[in-house]
Give the backbone structure.
Amino acid sequence: ILGRYFEDKELLSKISGNLDGNGRLSGTFHAPVFEGYINVSQPQVMGFNLDQITGELSWRAQTLSVDQMIISRAAEEVTAFGKIDFTQTQPSLDLGLKMEEAGLANLLILTGRSPQARIDGKVTGYLRLLGQLDQPLLRLIAQFSEGKINDFSSLEGELDLQIQDSRITVNRLLIDEAEGQLYASGAYIPGSQLQLSAKMREFPVAP
C-alpha cells in the first residue's frame, strides 16, 4: 500500500523484517482501509538493526496511524504514537516517541538525524517529530544520565533540545555535577553561528 504513495522507493528498500499480524481490510482497491495489529521481528531501518516492532496501526485516507507501537532493541524500548500523512507529494510526520533510559545516539540514527557533535547518553522523556519526512523538526524534552557531548562525559541533568535543518537549539540545559549546577541555552549552526548563555552555581571547572 505505502509503495503507491511513497516516491522515495530507495528509502523503502532500506526497510526490512519479518512480518506477522492480523487485522481487517475494507474500503475499495483505490481507497483501502486497514486496522489491525502487527509484529515485525528482526527489523532493519536504513541499516539500523532492531529486535522487534509491535503494536496497533491503521491506514485510512492515505494516512498511516500508530498507537502504542513498541520499538525494542536489546534492553531499550521506545513507545511510538502519531501519524504519517501521505496525501501530499512529500509525506509529513506528526509522531511522538516516549522512552525510558534509551540511547540518545541510537535515537538520532533511527530518526535520520546525526549532528556533527558527538552526542550520546541515556534519556528518559519525550521525542517529537514534526514536518516533512526528509527533514522533520525534532524536539526532545528529557532527563539524561551518562551524557556525552564531544569530550565531556558523565553528565546528568535535563534537556530541552530542538533540531531543525542544520540548526541545533538548546531551549534549556541543566547539568548537575557534584554539588554544582550549570544552566545553559543557545543555538548552533555548524560552521556559521554559535549563540550561548550560561549560568553556573558551584560548578566544577577543573578536569
User: Anything to note?
Assistant: The mean pLDDT is 82. The longest strand covers residues 32-45.
